[in-house]
Design goal:
It contains three helices and seven strands. With about 140 residues, it is α+β, with helices and mostly antiparallel strands. Strands 1, 2, 3, 4, 5, 6 and 7 form a seven-stranded mixed sheet that branches. The longest helix is centred in the middle third of the chain and has 13 residues.
Length: about 140
């Protein structure tokens, strides 16, 4: 049996002279927007759809190209591919899931690198570190 695959986006936003990372919390667990890949979707299409469904953000800019990183397998072989995008406008809204009628997440935060690093599990810290390494110096 192959790996179960999901796709997501590390969403960043400029604030002053630094970048903020969007994290979503479900119960006590922080993550980036992500979810399953539906039949006929590419990883990037799934990542865009999941980000829109989970945050209502649509103005994503792939300033670094279509770069991505994958997690090591976890939770029974699941692998997540994360893309990297900036989002300079739009407010996060934790919309109800059509399946449950409740939002998938309880809270969101735009956080600087250090604060985001503290909240993430090691598997996702590696993703955050990968994203941080791609941030261009701000003028």
């Amino acid at each position: 049996m192959g790996a179960r695959r999901s796709a997501g986006i590390v969403v960043v936003r400029r604030r002053g002279d630094s970048w903020l990372y969007l994290l979503l919390r479900a119960y006590g667990y922080w993550d980036f927007p992500k979810g399953g890949i539906e039949a006929g979707e590419s990883c990037l299409q799934a990542a865009l759809r999941e980000t829109r469904e989970e945050t209502a953000l649509t103005a994503l800019q792939f300033r670094w190209g279509e770069v991505w990183i994958e997690t090591e397998p976890y939770a029974g072989g699941k692998v997540v591919r994360y893309h990297l995008a900036a989002c300079d406008r739009g407010e996060v809204r934790l919309e109800p899931s059509p399946d449950t009628g409740r939002p998938e997440h309880h809270e969101y935060r735009w956080l600087p690198y250090e604060a985001a690093h503290e909240l993430l599990v090691p598997r996702l810290r590696r993703v955050l570190e990968w994203a941080q390494a791609r941030m261009i110096p701000l003028d």
